[in-house]
Amino acid sequence: MEMSRIGVVGAGTMGNGISQALAVAGIDVVMSDVAQAQLERATAAISGSLERLVKKDRMSGEQKGAALARIRTTTDLGALKDCALVIEAATENLPLKLKIFAQLDELAPAGAVIASNTSSISITRLAAATKRPAKVIGMHFFNPVPVMALVELIRGLQTSDETYAAVEALTKRIGKAPVQVRNSPGFVVNRMLCPMINEAIFALAEGLATAEQIDQAMKLGANHPIGPLALCDLVGLDVELAVMQVLFEGFKDPKYRPAPLLVEMVEAGYLGRKTGRGFFTYD
Ligand code: NAD
Prior knowledge:
Layout: E1 5-9, H1 13-24, E2 28-32, H2 36-55, H3 61-69, E3 71-74, E4 85-88, H4 94-107, E5 113-116, H5 123-127, E6 136-141, E7 150-155, H6 161-173, E8 177-182, H7 189-205, H8 211-221, H9 228-235, H10 237-251, H11 260-268
Parallel strand pairs: 1-2, 1-4, 2-3, 4-5, 5-6, 7-8
Antiparallel strand pairs: 6-7
Helix pairs in contact: 1-2, 7-9, 7-10, 9-10, 10-11
Bound molecules: nicotinamide-adenine-dinucleotide.
């Protein structure tokens, strides 16, 4: 099935970025959400993002208009019935995603592929909610989608070679770099990145160095563009904690235990940039 029309479920941070990347690559997109207001916010966000590219001379006004015209929005999941691929990017919640996968399985054509952008849920588990597990795969994009090149392609236990090949070709077509990953907690990037951030929080709590010094050390000593604590503020302390819990529960290995300071800061509502305070403070 040629991937000329793709459905996106969920028009939040990731859904609108994914829709933008697809539309810029010339693909017709049906972007759906349960909330009409969210679809309007997503359309405005995409328009603003494309406008910044026009101002930087990286895209013409006509190209911006054409990309926007390729995105249709809907609150009716049924409007995705003709899509060759549906990318689910709804809220990170297992019962919700299982329900969406069962609904998509009912309405999408037999040959269609159903992908999830989940950061932590097992692709094999989502596939089991459908009658087409061979056609289910993870497409883990990174935030902000229009900027970040990587897409982890997660193979569930039953994902077929044909499904993988079709999604890999699409990923390349939209200018992204695919990396094949077996279904496993945290996949590749979060499996390594989140424990490193967690370790920085242990170091801070032990008084090894100040937050500024820890970040400075990793920037200058490991050549990281951003320190682990500033990165945690950017990602969100709640998101970091959620991933550590998935690793801890998934592997039952104490090396993944969340740092107690991280847990306490999340309890206090210090979630990072989005709340104005994390390991650093923000205006
Ligand atoms: P978000 O909260 O910004 O957006 C989620 C959207 O899903 C909301 O607009 C919500 O209205 C919508 N939604 C909820 N139920 C729905 C339903 N039944 N049908 C259609 N839409 C529904 O979340 P996000 O940050 O965009 O994350 C989406 C997914 O992407 C999650 O699985 C998350 O783990 C994953 N992810 C997030 C990031 C990130 O940095 N934010 C990075 C990679 C992957």
